[in-house]
């Protein structure tokens, strides 16, 4: 366990610098932690609190939606320099694609499209935009938490690619290849979404109110936190493999694709758990 500060929620790991970014509140700041040793390298002040983080590209910057400041903050690595851009009401999550940043505005029912440090356009989104993800092919998806829907659009042209209902209580999403995987917190599952047309392909059951999600591209594994049981699940795109005990209230998870180390943040205890799972044996 590594003590980091008040209510850590929001993790992003950068494989190039080996740094884990952790969002904290009171005061609002970003802590940069060495992923190997757990040592705090730098603390960066923020204009507002963040619940979710994303890495724009290997080497940074870290995208920090400062919710109560209505700004997206880009934090460079490893020096911690910041650039803030005003977006819509209560930015909740962000993702980078095609040289642009996309920010879901939770209270604005919109996605802000940022380019060269300014808001280029604001797109309509499903009600309560939560998690965002982008495929390598340049398709961005946003989950509407209150509408219980997912919408996709082209990152380059911003053309609409479809909207469908998904789950009983979807929250977060990651991309793998040309597919999206949505965490259904209320429905206890991980839902696989295919494109052309946008559709639900498969659902994997997960007990325990799944919430945070990370994907390890080297081992082709998903890691999903189970907030009701204080565990983290390891899955393929088809089935649950195993679960591990975690810290309390594990809202966020990240993974180091070099080593396979998994990081889990405890919102209750102010710590980050460093988990080195043994190789999976059938």
Question: How would you describe this protein?
Answer:
The chain is mostly beta strands and 282 residues long. The chain is built from no helices and 28 strands. The protein has strands at 2-3, 11-14, 19-24, 29-34, 40-45, 54-55, 62-66, 71-75, 82-86, 91-97, 100-105, 110-115, 118-124, 129-134, 139-144, 149-154, 160-165, 170-176, 179-184, 189-194, 199-205, 210-216, 221-226, 231-235, 240-245, 250-255, 262-266, 271-275. The strands form seven sheets. It has a four-stranded antiparallel sheet, with no helix packed on it. The chain is globular and about 45 Å long. The model has no long low-confidence stretch (mean pLDDT 96).
In short, what is this structure?
The chain is mainly beta and 282 residues long. It is built from no helices and 28 strands.
| Average pLDDT metric | 96
Trace the largest sheet across and list its strands.
1-28-27-26
Count of helix runs:
0
**Beta content:** over 45%
Number of strands: 28
User: CA-to-CA gap between the ends?
Assistant: 29 Å
Overall shape: it is globular
Instruction: Give me the Rg, rounded.
Output: 17 Å
Largest sheet: 4 strands, antiparallel
Structural class: mainly beta
Low-confidence stretches: none
The percent range for helix content is under 10%
Q: H/E order of the elements?
A: EEEEEEEEEEEEEEEEEEEEEEEEEEEE
Which features would summarize this protein structure in a list?
about 280 residues; about 0% helix; mainly beta; single chain; globular; four-stranded antiparallel sheet; 28 strands
């Amino acid at each position: 366990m590594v003590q980091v500060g008040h209510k850590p929620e929001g993790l992003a790991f950068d494989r190039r610098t080996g740094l884990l970014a952790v969002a904290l509140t009171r005061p609002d700041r970003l802590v940069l932690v060495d992923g190997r040793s757990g040592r705090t390298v730098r603390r960066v002040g923020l204009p507002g609190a963040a619940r979710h983080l994303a890495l724009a590209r290997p080497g940074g910057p870290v995208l920090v939606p400062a919710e109560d400041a209505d700004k997206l903050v880009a934090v460079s690595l490893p020096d911690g320099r910041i650039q803030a851009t005003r977006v819509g009401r209560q930015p909740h999550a962000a993702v980078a694609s095609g040289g642009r940043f996309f920010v879901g505005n939770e209270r604005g029912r919109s996605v802000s499209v940022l380019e060269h440090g300014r808001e280029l356009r604001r797109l309509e989104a499903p009600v309560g935009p939560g998690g965002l993800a982008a495929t390598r092919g340049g398709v961005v998806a946003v989950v509407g938490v209150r509408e219980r829907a997912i919408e996709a659009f082209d990152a380059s042209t911003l053309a609409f690619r479809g909207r469908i209902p998904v789950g009983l209580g979807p929250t977060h999403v990651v991309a793998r290849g040309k597919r999206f995987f949505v965490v259904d917190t209320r429905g206890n599952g991980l839902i696989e979404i295919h494109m052309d047309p946008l559709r639900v392909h498969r659902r994997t059951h997960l007990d325990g109110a799944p919430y945070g999600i990370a994907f390890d591209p080297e081992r082709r594994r998903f890691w999903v936190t189970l907030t009701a049981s204080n565990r983290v699940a390891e899955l393929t795109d088809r089935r649950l493999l195993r679960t591990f005990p975690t810290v309390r209230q594990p809202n966020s998870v990240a993974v180091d694709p070099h080593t396979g180390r998994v990081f889990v943040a405890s919102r209750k205890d102010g710590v980050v758990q460093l988990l080195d799972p043994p190789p999976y044996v059938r």
